[in-house]
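4.2 Preliminary Data

To establish feasibility before requesting continued support, the project team ran the inverse folding procedure on a target of 470 residues. The structure was first converted into the token representation described in Section 3, and no sequence information of any kind was made available to the design step. The complete token record follows.
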């Protein structure tokens, strides 16, 4: 009974922890459904508004570049011809026509007319601002709302004229570069300083008005008009929730600043569209079920892993050389009877001795000697594999090859020797063969060891490696 308790103690404890985890996870996921649904909706609002804001900024920058280039070309002539304005008036992303504001508050149109804009436009004031975009103002007809994009035409260091790209606000809504929510939401472009609408796709067919002139709205709990006004004026990125006076449905209203004047982009999305994410909810519930299944699967995997890990650790401690990762002498002794019965043609033994290990340990320390042994083991793994490779002593390795071509074995032995020499390590190897299967491996081992010693003597006969010279 004691052994049973020891055996099942950890699995039982793991099972209890697992059941508790599943229960807590189920409650947690259920609670997170509503929170994450709401957060995902607001995140989507922010992302859609930011996409629209960035795309408008890119269009304005693109228009600025085009207008600057056209102004530089105009500056090369004696005067700006109306034909030139007519030729390029449709080249902008937002502006629908080109005009030229001259000193004396005169305007040259693309139709070739020169009209007075006195009282409406001031060349001196606009020229003092350099390249800029105006806020909402009235067109030369005194009725249509427009925005003007000015770029100076400079001759001899002086502003000779202002090239103007006229943005007609009545058409701007159709020219927006991005349609949030696939065009299913209302889009607003608001002057944060005045509250004037530059774009209002909710009140279509009307002249753009003013957001504050619309009056207060019945806000959802936790939101108020002052919060909205303050956020628009300060250029914040935020949201409010209010009830539409037209549809009676709650609208989720998100606003964010533009890098143009004090303009703000705003979106209002109906509640039914905001929460049209039933698939997300179903997916979240599926994840909860998957998490429970995964937990049980993890438990089973853990059990298998635990048993295999313990088994492998026991085997490793009994069979593996800790320094080199090859099999140790215990495994070598265990495998000899097995090896005697391996193969159908012949069995090969390679006996390897590492030269200079003792001297290296004495001169450079045992860590350096350990690195040499590890490098020799790595080379053995690379050339002969690990199935029949052993570290049988401090600097001795034994490798067996079953039914392998003799030339291939010799070639691999030479390759391993050269590769180690290239790294500054030296080995002596002896190779011997015996027919397989074999009754007794002792003669094979003795022959391989004898040839290794012959190679070792030859190695130390080289004056560069003669121990007596040290």
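Position-by-position output of the design step:
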């Amino acid at each position: 009974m004691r052994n049973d308790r020891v055996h099942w103690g950890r699995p039982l404890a793991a099972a209890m922890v697992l059941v508790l985890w599943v229960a807590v996870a189920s409650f947690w996921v259920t609670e997170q459904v509503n929170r994450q649904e709401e957060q995902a909706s607001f995140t989507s609002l922010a992302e859609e508004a930011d996409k629209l804001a960035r795309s408008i900024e890119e269009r304005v920058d693109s228009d600025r570049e085009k207008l600057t280039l056209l102004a530089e070309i105009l500056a090369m002539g004696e005067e700006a011809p109306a034909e030139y304005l007519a030729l390029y008036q449709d080249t902008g992303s937002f502006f629908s026509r080109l005009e030229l504001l001259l000193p004396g508050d005169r305007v040259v149109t693309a139709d070739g007319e020169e009209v007075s804009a006195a009282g409406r436009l001031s060349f001196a004031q606009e020229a003092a601002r350099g390249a800029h975009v105006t806020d909402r103002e009235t067109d030369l007809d005194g009725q249509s709302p427009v925005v003007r994009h000015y770029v100076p035409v400079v001759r001899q260091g002086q502003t000779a004229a202002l090239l103007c790209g006229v943005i007609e606000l009545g058409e701007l809504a159709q020219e927006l570069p991005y349609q949030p929510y696939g065009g299913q939401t209302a889009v607003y472009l608001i002057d944060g300083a005045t509250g004037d609408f530059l774009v209002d796709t909710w009140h279509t067919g009307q002249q753009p008005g003013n957001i504050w002139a619309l009056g207060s709205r019945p806000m959802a709990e936790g939101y108020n008009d002052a919060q909205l006004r303050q956020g628009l004026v300060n250029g914040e990125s935020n949201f409010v929730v209010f009830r539409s006076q037209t549809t009676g449905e709650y609208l989720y209203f998100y606003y964010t600043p533009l890098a143009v004047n004090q303009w703000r982009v705003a979106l209002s999305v109906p509640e039914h569209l905001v929460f049209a994410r039933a698939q997300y909810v179903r997916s979240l519930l599926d994840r909860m079920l998957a998490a429970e299944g995964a937990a049980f699967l993890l438990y089973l995997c853990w059990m298998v892993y635990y048993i295999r890990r313990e088994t492998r650790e026991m085997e490793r401690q009994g069979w593996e050389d800790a320094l080199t990762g090859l099999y140790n002498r215990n495994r070598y002794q265990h495998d000899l009877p097995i090896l005697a019965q391996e193969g159908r043609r012949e069995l090969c033994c390679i006996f390897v001795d590492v030269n200079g290990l003792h001297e290296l340990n004495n001169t450079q320390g045992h860590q350096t000697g350990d690195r040499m042994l590890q490098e020799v083991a790595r080379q053995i793994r690379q050339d002969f594999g690990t199935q029949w490779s052993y570290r049988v002593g401090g600097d001795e390795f034994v490798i067996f090859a079953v039914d392998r071509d003799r030339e291939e074995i010799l070639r691999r032995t030479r390759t391993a020797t050269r590769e180690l020499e290239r790294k500054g390590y030296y080995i002596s190897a002896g190779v011997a063969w015996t027919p397989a299967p074999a009754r007794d491996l002792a003669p094979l081992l003795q022959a391989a060891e004898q040839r290794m010693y012959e190679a070792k003597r030859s190695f130390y006969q080289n004056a560069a490696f003669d121990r007596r010279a040290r």
